[in-house]
Amino acid sequence: MPGEDFDRHLNELQDEVLVMGSMVIKAINRSVDALKQRNLTLAEQIIVPERAITVVIGPSGCGKSSLIRSQR
Length: 72
What we know:
mainly alpha, 75% helix
């Protein structure tokens, strides 16, 4: 039924948003640590997961979401 599909898609989207939120929190915490320590190597390691977050959100900030997980 259409209502069931909508609910399922909404639940999937909610799960993806929660995962993205977790990824963002980790990236922010690691970024703060890198800045405090003035650690360029640590800062560079944040870029890969950050790109995964960007891909999930998409360039326009909308559209069908698909979670891209880093290989780390």
